[in-house]
Design brief:
By secondary structure, this protein is mainly beta. The chain contains 3 helices and 15 strands. The strands form 5 sheets. The protein has a 5-stranded antiparallel beta sheet with strand order 3-4-6-7-8, with no helix packed on it. Strands 10-11-12-13 form a 4-stranded antiparallel beta sheet, with no helix packed on it. A two-stranded antiparallel ribbon has the order 1-2. 30% of the residues are buried.
Length: 217
Amino acid sequence: DHHYGWVVEVDPFDPLRPVRKHTALGRFAHENTAMGQTKDGRVVVYMGDDKGDECFYKFISNKKFNPKNREANFDILETGTLHVANLSKQQWIALDHATNPALKTQFADQADVLTNARAAGRAVGGTKLDRPEDVEIHPLDGSVFLALTNSTGHGNFHGQVLRFAPANGDHASDSFTFEVFVAGGRQSGITCPDNLHFDSKGNLWVVEDYAATEDNV
């Protein structure tokens, strides 16, 4: 039952290198991973959980990225801290069994937390969102964009794109501000945003997860 839902890394430059399953990034319906760096050189990975009423996550590696030694970076995602976003408090909450009392009472150990990341995220106050899918980091200012496709159960038929700004411009920060960058609907001309992409000029391109029919045109 726990075989699926993990981030898997494949090295396109070395077909003989074993595929790596990165359990430290948690188990849920990963839409993608958006990777950047903290100011002190560690790797940050932002991830959305592609399901209604699920959460937004961030992983920060313990180890720093080495730009001069490719081989030294292959284990960089094996140790670090997974966080879940609480939008009401504008904080990242660590999903760390050793330090978070809420996790100690409900989960046996850190492996249990990572395997059941959705339940762990809710246990510590992660904000349930309207189907968080693709997340991308702006190439010019480092802000983080998250596509919320929709939630018909909440009456949110067209979804929206959120923009997060980490405190002090550092992805290692535990706090952030956020805003609705664009709300889906007739006025914006966007509905059900799914995949996001920035071009070299910083323009945001949006792919819609929407099928028009006679009933919903």
